[in-house]
Amino acid sequence: MAASKNPTLSSFEAVFALASEEQRPIVEALHQKILSVHPGAYMLAWPKQGIVSYGFGPRKMLDHYAYIGIQAKHTNLGFYRGTSLSDPAVLLEGTGKSLRHVKISTLAQVASPSVLALLKNAIAAQSTHAKSEA
Q: How far apart are CA 113 and CA 98, in angstroms?
C-alpha cells in the first residue's frame, strides 16, 4: 500500500504491516467486511497495540463496537461488549468483564454467516448505546 497523508489510513497500514503474509488477506477481508456492514464506521488504529478499532465516534471504549487485532498466529475480531452479544455458534472467547473475541485464521471464517451476525448485532447494540449516551 502506498503512503497516505490521511493519518487514519497510514495508521491502518502500520497495523496491517504487522500481519504475517498469511494473515494479510484475512486482515483486509475483515476490514472490508466491517466497512460493508457499516460504511461510515469511525476507524482508529493503534499500531503499538496492533489493533484497528471501529465505531461511531473517537472514544474507543464508549463509541466503538469491534476491533481487528493482529496476533502471532491468527487475527482477533474483538467486540468491546462481547458478553452482551448473542453467540449461538459459540465463537466468542475470552474471560474479561465485557471484551470477547473470535480467533480468525482462514478467509472461510471471515465469510461465515455467524461472524457476520456477530458484527451486525454489535453494530446495532452500539448504535443503541451511543444514542442513549447522547
A: 23
- The pLDDT tens digits of the residues spanning 1-38 come to 333 334 455 688 889 889 999 999 999 999 999 999 99
What is the enclosing helix (H) or strand (E) of 109?
A: helix 107-110
Q: Are 67 and 57 in contact (CB under 8 A)?
A: no
Q: Supply the pTM of this predicted model.
A: 0.87
C-alpha to C-alpha distance for 85 and 105, rounded to whole angstroms: 21
CB 26 within 8 A of CB 110: yes
Helix (H, G, I), strand (E, B) or coil at 125: helix
pLDDT in tens, 63-113: 999 999 999 999 999 999 999 999 999 999 999 999 999 999 999 999 999
Cα angle 49-127-116, degrees, rounded to a multiple of 5: 70
- Summarize the chain as % helix, strand, coil (round to 5): 40, 20, 35
Q: Would you list the domain boundaries of the chain?
A: 7-133
DSSP letter for 38, please. Answer: -
